[in-house]
Write a structure and sequence with these properties.
Layout (H helix, E strand, L loop, with lengths): L4 H7 L2 H47 L3 H8 L6 H19 L4 H23 L3 H33 L4 H58 L1 H9 L1
């Protein structure tokens, strides 16, 4: 019995072929998302490291304007987005608002939180699709298998022949759909977990940078109001 790919494809019914095509498209889509997220995350890591080293020196020298200007050069950096949002809000409120030190720092803190949430959402783009493919691909393949087995037994009933030999070829062809489904789902689940761990790492980095930035605001603004903000 010929079990080559061409022979299996030729012997498949319409539903089985549609299932295989769908699984193939899911595989291409998941790999496309994975490739795009990999380069996006890699660039974010590289630029964030460069930005952190540069900004640390600017803040030590009390030059927040230059830190904001530097953030524009690192458009893929998650740290640049968060730090720039906090610095811009702090400088605007401090210069043009009659708010107390506590209120100025709280305004900056809220700006940082908004930037963190938006950046995290940006990092998670496409990960839901990976999770969906990982969860559904085995069932799509199983659907193809069930239909294939039904067709095999239907063919046996029509021809009147019995025994394992009469249905073995049909069952083997049907099980190919399950194998393909698993082959699509396993990498998708692995990639989803990998990228989700990367997002969690970025969240920790943004949280640490936010905390250090709030400390900078407290030291810069001074006064009992700022100290009260830190206590809260």
């Amino acid at each position: 019995m010929d079990m080559s790919i061409g022979a299996l494809w030729a012997s498949m019914g319409l539903v089985a072929r549609l299932v295989v095509i769908l699984l193939f498209l899911q595989s291409i889509y998941s790999l496309t998302i994975a490739g795009e997220r990999y380069w996006r995350f890699r660039k974010a890591k590289k630029e964030s490291l460069q930005f952190a080293l540069m900004t640390t020196q600017y803040l030590k020298q009390d030059r927040p304007q230059e830190a904001v200007a530097a953030s524009k050069k690192f458009k893929s950096s998650h740290l640049a987005r968060v730090v720039a949002a906090g610095l811009l809000e702090f400088m605007v409120e401090e210069q043009s608002s009659p708010l107390s030190g506590y209120d100025v720092i709280e305004a900056a803190r809220r700006a940082i939180e908004r930037a963190t949430l938006m950046t995290t959402a940006d990092f998670k783009k496409g990960l839901g699709a990976l999770a969906t493919i990982g969860a559904t691909a085995p069932f799509v393949g199983l659907f193809g298998t069930v239909v294939g087995i039904i067709n095999a037994f239907t063919g046996m009933a029509v021809t009147g022949s019995g025994g394992l030999g009469a249905v073995s070829a049909g069952i083997a062809e049907a099980l190919v759909a399950t194998a393909i489904g698993l082959g699509v789902a396993i990498p998708a689940v692995w990639l989803y977990n990998y990228f989700l761990n990367q997002v969690e790492r970025f969240q920790v980095e943004m949280s640490n940078s936010s905390s250090e930035l709030i400390d900078f605001f407290i030291k810069k603004h001074g006064g009992s109001d700022a100290i009260g903000s830190a206590a809260r």
